[in-house]
Amino acid sequence: MLLVNTIRENFEQVLEGLQKRNFPHAEAALHQVLELDKKRKETQTERDNLQAESNSIAKEIGMLMKSGKKEEAEKIKSRTSEIKSQVKLLEDAYNNIEEDLKQILYTLPNVPHYSVPKGKSADDNEIVLEHGSIPELHADKLPHWELIKKYDIIDFDLGVKIAGAGFPVYKGRGARLQRALINFFLDEAMKAGYIEVQPPILVNEDSGYGTGQLPDKEGQMYEATADKLYLIPTAEVPITNMYRDVILNEAEFPIKNVGYTPCFRREAGSWGAHVRGLNRLHQFDKVEIVQIVHPDRSYDALEDMSSYVQGLLQKLELPYRVLRLCGGDMGFTSALTYDMEVYSAAQERWLEVSSVSNFETYQANRLKLRFKGEDKKTQLAHTLNGSALALPRIVASILENNQTEDGIKMPKVLVPYLGFDMI
RNA sequence: AGAGGAGUGGCAGAGUGGUCGAUUGCGGCGGUCUUGAAAACCGUUGUACCGCGAGGUACCGGGGGUUCGAAUCCCUCCUCCUCUGCCA
């Protein structure tokens, strides 16, 4: 969440940022934050003073008791009841104010980076670059949902039977392709200096709040209600939360983690024309990269991650483009996001396969993720993450783009992992 | 899952109602000594909030309670250890 200090010191800038996101009533909300914070401080001062008085009386009584002056001690005791009830009142007031403040702050999205374009929807995103050429296929080309049937590599009906729509069963060479991609992505990340982790795929409430899935987006996560746990929508949640309530040493930067996990998304109400086949699922596989860095370095790290992801797409020989998301299309917690989209030649559409974001201190503030610098001061770190990569749409575009009359050609880099070069 | 035990500062480990944010040791940082280093000695060493500052407040697993006063007593939750049970 946003820092109150930032709102106070850079009011105009924050306001502009929220407006870029088309956040309604931004100015009123920001004023309310400042007002509540002011009230919070006043209440704290008042409460602390009374508490100090109460503490000193308690000490006095302690001394009197020790020196055996019980009657005097009893006399003083009567003075405390009034202070005590007042402290209680102020304490409650303080807690209420703080809670109200937190509630408003939770509703405020991150302030976009200055380079983020204005805009309302995906149509306003800025195309940063395009790479690769779009393959020309025969007129009888098939979309991937036909291809998977033709070659019997992914079975949606079977998934429906055992779980429901959006839970495909990968079979034979389809399953092998999944495993190959996961291994390829993990190996590449390790070469790039990321430390692999295998986190839990169920997380508690604190973790949900830490990375910003809660309180807003409960509906997007599957819940194990009996144990108050959530199935992760992305490995970002467990991996970033490893660093919740942590004070790092500046020397430990940059922290680079990679993890493969299944991801679960309820995607309630979002089924429609463009979500056939692998385009949108309730369960899918993803390899995620996370970086925790010094605030001065976070935009370099973002560019780093962006070119790393592009490198993967190049190795997979997929045509792609990079978008800088506009204010209206950006995720709630992000300051700057690049989306990578691959071209799926039979659907004749661009498909998002990665989203790389810098959250600056937005997540770190919730996570209490700090570091101690050379000057011995603790300050918030910057967090970043990106998909590297999400599998289903990669699979969709590999299948569609590489289809031939003799079968589907596999990208060269995957052949050692697959043990075959054609499906 | 049942019975018992335990959770204290970076780590180890005292403290069972009063002046304890907390003895001590190790580690870390600074210094003295030394050509340099080690050893020894001296000092220093948590986080957050409020305050220009002096200083104040809170935190001894989390939350709640008793008390003038809680690390210490009570309730509850979490975690870990031991034994029993179950299980990949």
TrEMBL record:
<dbReference type="InterPro" id="IPR002317">
    <property type="entry name" value="Ser-tRNA-ligase_type_1"/>
</dbReference>
<keyword id="KW-0175">Coiled coil</keyword>
<comment type="pathway">
    <text>Aminoacyl-tRNA biosynthesis; selenocysteinyl-tRNA(Sec) biosynthesis; L-seryl-tRNA(Sec) from L-serine and tRNA(Sec): step 1/1.</text>
</comment>
<keyword id="KW-0648">Protein biosynthesis</keyword>
<dbReference type="InterPro" id="IPR006195">
    <property type="entry name" value="aa-tRNA-synth_II"/>
</dbReference>
<feature type="binding site">
    <location>
        <position position="265"/>
    </location>
    <ligand>
        <name>L-serine</name>
    </ligand>
</feature>
<feature type="binding site">
    <location>
        <begin position="265"/>
        <end position="267"/>
    </location>
    <ligand>
        <name>ATP</name>
    </ligand>
</feature>
<dbReference type="InterPro" id="IPR015866">
    <property type="entry name" value="Ser-tRNA-synth_1_N"/>
</dbReference>
<dbReference type="InterPro" id="IPR042103">
    <property type="entry name" value="SerRS_1_N_sf"/>
</dbReference>
<dbReference type="Pfam" id="PF00587">
    <property type="entry name" value="tRNA-synt_2b"/>
</dbReference>
<keyword id="KW-0067">ATP-binding</keyword>
<dbReference type="GO" id="GO:0005737">
    <property type="term" value="C:cytoplasm"/>
</dbReference>
<dbReference type="GO" id="GO:0005524">
    <property type="term" value="F:ATP binding"/>
</dbReference>
<feature type="binding site">
    <location>
        <begin position="352"/>
        <end position="355"/>
    </location>
    <ligand>
        <name>ATP</name>
    </ligand>
</feature>
<keyword id="KW-0030">Aminoacyl-tRNA synthetase</keyword>
<feature type="binding site">
    <location>
        <position position="234"/>
    </location>
    <ligand>
        <name>L-serine</name>
    </ligand>
</feature>
<dbReference type="GO" id="GO:0004828">
    <property type="term" value="F:serine-tRNA ligase activity"/>
</dbReference>
<keyword id="KW-0547">Nucleotide-binding</keyword>
<dbReference type="Pfam" id="PF02403">
    <property type="entry name" value="Seryl_tRNA_N"/>
</dbReference>
<feature type="binding site">
    <location>
        <position position="288"/>
    </location>
    <ligand>
        <name>L-serine</name>
    </ligand>
</feature>
<feature type="domain" description="Aminoacyl-transfer RNA synthetases class-II family profile">
    <location>
        <begin position="176"/>
        <end position="416"/>
    </location>
</feature>
<keyword id="KW-0436">Ligase</keyword>
<feature type="binding site">
    <location>
        <position position="385"/>
    </location>
    <ligand>
        <name>L-serine</name>
    </ligand>
</feature>
<keyword id="KW-0963">Cytoplasm</keyword>
<comment type="similarity">
    <text>Belongs to the class-II aminoacyl-tRNA synthetase family. Type-1 seryl-tRNA synthetase subfamily.</text>
</comment>
<dbReference type="InterPro" id="IPR045864">
    <property type="entry name" value="aa-tRNA-synth_II/BPL/LPL"/>
</dbReference>
<dbReference type="InterPro" id="IPR002314">
    <property type="entry name" value="aa-tRNA-synt_IIb"/>
</dbReference>
<dbReference type="InterPro" id="IPR010978">
    <property type="entry name" value="tRNA-bd_arm"/>
</dbReference>
<protein>
    <recommendedName>
        <fullName>Serine--tRNA ligase</fullName>
        <ecNumber>6.1.1.11</ecNumber>
    </recommendedName>
</protein>
<dbReference type="GO" id="GO:0006434">
    <property type="term" value="P:seryl-tRNA aminoacylation"/>
</dbReference>
<feature type="coiled-coil region">
    <location>
        <begin position="33"/>
        <end position="100"/>
    </location>
</feature>
